[in-house]
Write a structure and sequence with these properties.
The complex is a heterodimer of chains A (298) and B (244). Chain A is of the alpha/beta class and 298 residues long. Chain A is built from eleven helices and 13 strands. The radius of gyration of chain B is 19 Å and the shape is globular. The chains are: A alpha/beta (298), B mainly alpha (244).
Chain lengths: 298, 244
């Protein structure tokens, strides 16, 4: 389905016995962008991603990749590359042979194995047994496996786990470059600062349910709600705002106003007050996340 | 399907499992054949049936192939590689079928190796004790062909059983308990010859007659039926399960 969103989840519910991991979850992510998938531990992120990739059977609803169930994709790893948490390796097999096994099964040339090893900078250790790899090297090997089929969609579950700062920077640069070249990235992470640097939009779930899905900038602006104003005539502006019933406080030479930017701009214009800055007050992703998922025991 | 079988064969070749298994067969063959021929009387060893009995140790390859099959399928969960296997090949029943074919081929290889090692060891010991060697006969050929078939079928049964249980250690323990305790208990109801191990033994015993075993044809048919049933059950279990 050419017009289908890369990832679409419709009314997904997954129960394990009496435990509900995901409940009536629905969202779709756009192509060519990086979408962060956030939620506290146990929120249902991994279950959702595994349902998307056909590893977990939904109790009801469905999770689709490019409009199809994963098992019905004609070229699964050529469509979506995935790096999942708790993805295992045989410790006695070399990284290169691990990729060769996948390549042969998918009908991909073995030459591609060396290409992806070079892409993730593992070519020097490719012939070493995986048992001797660091956690970061295993994560890179997982990324190499995900890239093998040259997919247009990457699904990553906590890919930064175990990566050192250099590895995290490498991953960030890589994902941004992948998205710039038209690829779609759907990434779950608990490292909010990392997602904030990467994501164009975010999907936040809490106790298996959707709590937010919107562009990152809109989310952080909406969550804060107020406006930041800088003016050489701040006192007069504050008085006019107070007359209009709008509260404003001065912080570090700026006015923090408890009204939308449009209303503040109109009041300032009516009063003839010059403004040097007028912008929505934003909250950090972490602040928004904690506000939306308040009450979750970690 | 051919790609999946090639991939599964590559999995088997790219770890040291088969090397260790080969060394195990070699060590056991040296031990058992040395004890048998070294301690037996010359007059008994001169009988072709006695030499046939010694070389039939090659049937150990069927037990080994069964364990390789279990390790190949249940081992995917022990090492956590099932995730990537099913991401590349999401139709899980095809993966089970490919594994069964690949391990059956590996079983053939193990059978050839075990037959060669036992035959060679027996010949050396017999020559060393100046016993006339009767190791080239139609009966010996039947034995070796039976061993190859039995190892291939046992490997496929191992894959099916491992897929059904999906816990490596538990699957091996249950299989061994069945062989040592469960199947002998069938004799209470005179059903022992229909158990999986006895059906496979009937395949190994090709060309010989035994009151405890089915004839070769029914034994082969029953062994293949066991392999098919375990693989179908294993595939159904894999298909239903969540890979978490």
């Amino acid at each position: 389905m050419p017009d289908a969103p890369p990832v679409e989840v419709r009314g997904l519910t997954k129960r394990y016995g009496s435990t509900v991991a995901v409940e009536e979850l629905s969202f779709a992510i756009p192509a060519g962008r990086i979408t962060g998938f956030l939620g506290p531990n146990g929120a249902g992120k991994t279950t959702t991603l595994r349902a998307l990739l056909g590893l977990v059977h939904p109790s009801s609803g469905e999770a689709l990749v490019m409009g199809s169930r994963y098992a019905r994709l004609r070229d699964p790893i050529g469509t979506v590359g995935s790096v999942l948490e708790a993805q295992g390796y045989h410790p006695g097999r070399s990284g290169r042979n691990h990729l060769r096994v996948l390549a042969v099964a998918a009908g991909i040339s073995v030459a591609r194995v060396d290409e992806v090893l070079a892409e993730v900078e593992l070519e020097r250790v490719g012939r070493r047994r995986i048992g001797g790899y660091s956690l970061g090297m295993r994560q890179r090997l997982g990324v190499a496996a995900a890239l093998m089929g040259r997919p247009s969609l990457l699904v990553l579950d906590e890919p930064a786990n175990g990566l050192d700062p250099e590895g995290i920077r490498w991953l960030r640069t890589f994902l941004l470059s992948f998205a710039r070249s038209g690829g779609t990235v759907f990434i779950s992470s608990h490292v909010l600062a990392e997602v904030a640097q990467l994501a164009d939009e975010v999907v936040i779930i809490h106790r298996g349910r959707l709590v937010a899905h919107e562009p990152l900038a809109a989310l952080t602006a909406r969550a804060a709600g107020g406006t930041v104003v800088r003016s050489p005539d701040a006192e007069r502006l504050r008085a006019r705002l107070a007359e209009a019933g709008v509260e404003a406080v001065e912080v570090d030479g700026q006015l923090r106003v408890g009204a939308p930017a449009e209303r503040v701009g109109e009041i300032a214009a009516a009063a003839g007050v010059v403004l040097h800055e007028l912008r929505p007050q934003t909250a950090t992703l972490e602040e928004v996340f904690l506000e939306l998922t308040a009450g979750e025991s970690q | 399907m051919i790609r999946l079988v090639r991939s599964e064969l590559l999995k088997l070749r790219t770890t040291r499992l088969l090397l260790w298994i080969g060394l195990l067969i070699l060590a056991l063959a040296v031990l058992v054949i040395s004890l048998n021929i070294g301690q037996d009387s010359i007059s008994h060893l001169e009988e072709p049936s006695a030499q046939h009995g010694v070389v039939s140790f090659a049937a150990i390859s069927a037990l080994v192939a069964l364990i390789v099959g279990i390790l190949d399928s249940a081992g995917e969960y022990a090492h956590g590689t099932a995730t990537q296997t099913f991401l590349v090949a999401p139709l899980r029943e095809r993966v089970v079928a490919a594994k069964a074919l690949a391990v059956a081929l590996a079983g053939l290889g193990l059978g050839v190796f075990a037959a060669a090692v036992t035959w060679g060891m027996a010949a050396l010991w017999l020559l060393g004790r100046s016993v006339p060697v009767h190791l080239v006969s139609r009966g010996m050929l039947d034995l070796f062909l039976g061993v190859l078939a039995a190892a291939a079928i046992a490997g496929a049964i191992g894959v099916g059983f491992g897929s059904l249980v999906r816990r490596q250690t538990a699957a091996i323990v249950v299989a061994l308990i069945w062989l040592l305790v469960g199947e002998p208990l069938l004799s209470v109801a005179s059903l022992q010859q229909y158990g999986p191990a006895h059906a496979i033994a009937a395949v190994v015993n090709a060309g010989s007659r035994s009151s405890e075993l089915l004839a070769f044809g029914p034994g082969l048919a029953l062994s293949l039926a066991y392999a098919a049933v375990f693989c179908v059950l294993g595939a159904a279990a894999e298909k239903r399960s969540d890979v978490t």
